[in-house]
Write a structure and sequence with these properties.
single chain; mainly alpha; about 80% helix
């Protein structure tokens, strides 16, 4: 499925400077809609696209930075398992609304990264892509349509109330398994066993965190921690602009030292009490955590990118900083412009 999505992205971008960087970002949008994981996106796409980009004349640092930063789109674009964790930590808010709220920020992040990548490609004279062809696009679309069906099952099924988020995930998994083994024939039973083992490890970690979130929420409520945090922040300033900025700074700092699921469980019941729209705050929180995955000392995506490319962490982070600034720009946009996250779910009657 992954190769089919890369070919589809390659058929879409046309002959432009830095075309393979555009392919990387588009492929992250497609693959993110299936995996919902930045680490899986970087590990899977990076293993293919980073060597491919380097072979065609791109710097390893640039190739890896594009792969890592664009992988965060998958955490915003549905189906995102982190959105589901947030929905539970926030007290069971609508998963459908969260899914729809993440689409525009995810696409906006991709567009901003594409514009910046094009600017760097022109400045550094990176190679152009292959010419655009309608026949090539049609061929790529036909081959990738089975893989894109996974995204449609989850998004359409949940938004239109055909089934719940849990049911859609189960159906999408069965569908993806059938497509991988019977249609594309890219997986055998031996590989399936390894996938199941890996999934069980991830599932166990998430379930432990979710099960702990209930008692944790009770404890911080009983100890009046949210009230103390809110009073402390209001004591610093009564400006809504500065409060929103302070919330982002707190989450960004936590993102450098804690795992994503842990941050969601810890900060959601505390910071939601300040008065943020829970739907908008979900997108803001997820993007904040995604940025944390690219920052040391804990940044998991940064370490994966370094391992794939062979570029030392210190040098790789230096070349990732400009992309982080673009991501921070998008973060500020969705923080101070609620319409970016709330318009689509509002139009669909999910708010």
């Amino acid at each position: 499925i992954l190769y089919k999505l890369i070919k589809l992205a390659n058929a879409l971008k046309g002959r432009m400077r830095g075309g393979l960087a555009m392919v990387n970002i588009l492929a992250s949008i497609f693959f993110g809609g299936i995996s919902g994981s930045a680490t899986a996106d970087t590990a899977s796409l990076g293993a293919i696209l980073i060597p491919m980009m380097h072979k065609q004349g791109y710097d390893k640092e640039f190739s890896t930075a594009v792969t890592m930063s664009s992988s965060v789109q998958g955490m915003l674009i549905p189906p995102s398992h982190n959105m589901i964790i947030y929905a539970m930590a926030a007290g069971g808010i609508s998963v459908s609304a969260l899914f729809m709220a993440g689409i525009v920020p995810g696409v906006l992040l991709g567009v901003v990264l594409m514009i910046f990548s094009y600017y760097l490609s022109v400045k550094r004279n990176y190679p152009k892509g292959t010419p655009f062809s309608l026949s090539g696009l049609w061929t790529a679309l036909k081959k990738s349509i089975w893989g894109l069906g996974t995204v449609l099952i989850v998004v359409v099924g949940v938004v239109f109330g055909i089934f719940t988020a849990t049911e859609s995930a189960a159906i999408a998994c069965v569908y993806a398994l059938i497509v991988s083994m019977c249609v594309y024939r890219e997986m055998d039973f031996k590989e399936l066993i390894q996938v199941v083992k890996s999934s069980l490890k991830t599932l166990a970690t998430v379930l432990v965190l979710i099960s702990a979130s209930g008692p944790f929420g009770f404890c911080i409520t009983y100890l009046k921690i949210p009230e103390m945090v809110v009073n402390a922040m209001l004591g610093l300033t009564d400006s809504k602009f500065l409060l929103l900025l302070l919330i982002n700074l707190i989450i960004l700092v936590l993102g450098t030292i804690l795992g994503m699921a842990s941050i969601i469980v810890i900060v959601t019941p505390i910071l939601l009490s300040i008065g943020f729209s829970p739907i908008q705050f979900g997108a803001v929180l997820i993007l904040n955590c995604g940025i944390g995955l690219l920052t040391p000392p804990v940044g998991g995506v940064l370490f994966i990118g370094s391992g794939i490319s062979g570029v030392p962490i210190e040098r790789l982070f230096k070349h990732t900083v400009p992309f982080l600034l673009m991501m921070l720009l998008v973060l500020l946009m969705i923080t101070y412009i609620p319409a970016i996250t709330l318009t689509l779910p509002g139009l669909l009657g999910l708010l």
